[in-house]
């Protein structure tokens, strides 16, 4: 695995436990209003080491001082007025997307804005912070993406923390998210080779995080967080839920369950035990989405088809059955051998027992081998999504639903208790 020269060195070893035990649990039960949030911020102790927990409770001035001291010229601390200017006051005409925690707008930086900052297009995320939780997501992104640099992670250019406003400035990714390409009707279908390339790129990003000296668990691996460069190089973005992995002899970190239904690993949902293998499960779900062109959860489908993993599993072990669930938008233009191997890999990734899931370097190796297959399915046309199983259950699986049903905002915890 190729790492950038800058070593990954977490600012603090204990940031994660503090965040979950205090800030999240307190504020999920009783989320303060914005004004209460301002009253509650306490000054940092005189101790100057940058820490997640300290920053979670600091005033914006103090946070800016700490971030500037820690990141130096690696990250730019923008003023809100500058970001307003480059996005035409966050105009809806410049809207690139919207996730669980805010809107993302396109902006243009010209060479006169900041010394040492080249003219370029950027994406500006305006976080709807609503109390400490949004602030924490913003901070997680600054701390993780500010320190991690890799060709398969989106580059964070800077941030803005002014009063109660929290913004992030990233490199602009011209082809947007994988979600838009796979599921939006207006987009042209992604060819098979491009799907494999995207899977490899995203796997490399995840492998980099897991292979760090102290592993990072991404926790929100899904198509809307995989962004695409002009040549379809995949980069992971949105580190709002990222966590430091277990240390020493610990096998997992225990956290409040956060993430996205349909992608989160079952053992994490039921126990709150988070490991890098939870990310591998989500990776398997995305592989299934690439194969089938179906979303991980689609509430508008018949019950037995709503959960992609449950529905797809019986089809993954034979080429004949697999053919029935391949994305109709591929129109048969895919490598049969490649699809079969990708399906088997996906099946391993979504194993119920986390120990049966492969590690990311192994995943990359398998996917890279798929690139060499030149066999293409001989027949073209729409593939009916039917099988012996679906017939037995009496469901008509031939209709491809257009609905986006079942999609959950990323910031929602999986436990139903939060965010009423
Ligand atoms: N750097 C970027 N370049 C282009 N589009 C982006 C960029 N960052 C985000 N987007 C778009 O905005 C959407 C939401 O961004 P994301 O960071 O996932 O927000 P959230 O934290 O609210 O989920 C993405 O799915 C994508 O469509
Ligand atoms: Mg997102």
UniProtKB/TrEMBL annotation:
CDD domains: STKc_IRAK. It is an enzyme of class 2 (transferase). GO terms for cellular component: plasma membrane. InterPro entries: Kinase-like_dom_sf (IPR011009), Plant_Ser_Thr_Prot_Kinase (IPR050823), Prot_kinase_dom (IPR000719), Protein_kinase_ATP_BS (IPR017441), Ser-Thr/Tyr_kinase_cat_dom (IPR001245), Ser/Thr_kinase_AS (IPR008271). One of its GO terms (molecular function) is protein serine/threonine kinase activity. Residues 90-370 form the Protein kinase domain. Residues 384-396 have a biased composition (Polar residues). It is found in: Cell membrane. It comes from the Eukaryota. ATP binds at residue 125. The keyword RNA-binding does not apply. Keywords: ATP-binding, Cell membrane, Kinase, Membrane, Nucleotide-binding, Serine/threonine-protein kinase, Transferase. Its main location: membrane. Its EC number is 2.7.11.1. Belongs to the protein kinase superfamily. Ser/Thr protein kinase family. This is non-specific serine/threonine protein kinase. It comes from Castanea mollissima. The lineage of its organism: Eukaryota, Viridiplantae, Streptophyta, Embryophyta, Tracheophyta.
């Amino acid at each position: 695995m190729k790492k950038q020269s800058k070593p990954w060195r977490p600012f603090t070893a204990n940031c994660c436990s503090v965040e979950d035990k205090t800030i999240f649990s307190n504020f999920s039960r009783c989320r303060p209003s914005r004004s209460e949030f301002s009253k509650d911020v306490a000054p940092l102790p005189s101790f100057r080491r940058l820490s997640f927990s300290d920053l979670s409770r600091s005033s914006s001035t103090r946070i800016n001082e700490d971030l500037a001291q820690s990141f130096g010229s690696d990250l730019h601390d923008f003023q809100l007025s500058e970001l307003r200017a480059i996005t035409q006051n966050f105009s809806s005409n410049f809207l690139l997307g919207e996730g669980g925690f805010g809107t993302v707008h396109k902006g243009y930086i010209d060479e006169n804005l900041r010394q040492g900052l080249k003219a370029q297009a950027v994406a500006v995320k305006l976080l709807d912070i609503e109390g400490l939780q949004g602030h924490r997501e913003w901070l997680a992104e600054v701390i993780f993406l500010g320190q991690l640099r890799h060709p398969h992670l989106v580059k964070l250019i800077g941030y803005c923390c002014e009063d109660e406003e929290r913004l992030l400035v990233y490199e602009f990714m011209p082809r947007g998210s994988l979600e838009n390409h796979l599921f939006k009707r207006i987009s042209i279908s992604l060819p098979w080779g491009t799907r494999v390339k995207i899977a490899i790129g995203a796997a490399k990003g995840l492998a980099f995080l897991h292979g760090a000296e102290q592993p990072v668990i991404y926790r929100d691996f899904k198509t809307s967080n995989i962004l695409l460069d002009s040549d379809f190089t995949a980069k992971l973005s949105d580190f709002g839920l990222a966590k430091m992995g277990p240390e020493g002899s610990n096998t997992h970190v225990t956290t409040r369950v956060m993430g996205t239904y349909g992608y989160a690993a079952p053992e994490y949902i039921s126990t709150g035990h988070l490991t890098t293998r939870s990310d591998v499960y989500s990776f398997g779900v995305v592989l299934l989405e690439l194969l089938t062109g179906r979303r991980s959860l689609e509430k508008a489908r018949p019950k037995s088809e709503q959960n992609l993993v449950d529905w797809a599993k019986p089809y993954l072990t034979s080429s004949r059955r697999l053919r029935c669930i391949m994305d109709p938008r591929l129109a048969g233009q895919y490598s049969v051998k490649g699809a079969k191997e990708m399906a088997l890999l996906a099946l391993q990734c979504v194993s119920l027992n986390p120990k049966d899931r492969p590690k990311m370097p192994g995943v990359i190796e398998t996917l890279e081998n798929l690139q060499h297959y030149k066999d293409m399915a001989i027949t073209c046309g729409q593939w009916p999504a039917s099988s012996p199983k679906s017939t037995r259950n009496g469901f008509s699986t031939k209709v491809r639903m257009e609905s986006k049903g079942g999609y959950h905002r990323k910031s929602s915890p999986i436990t139903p208790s939060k965010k009423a």
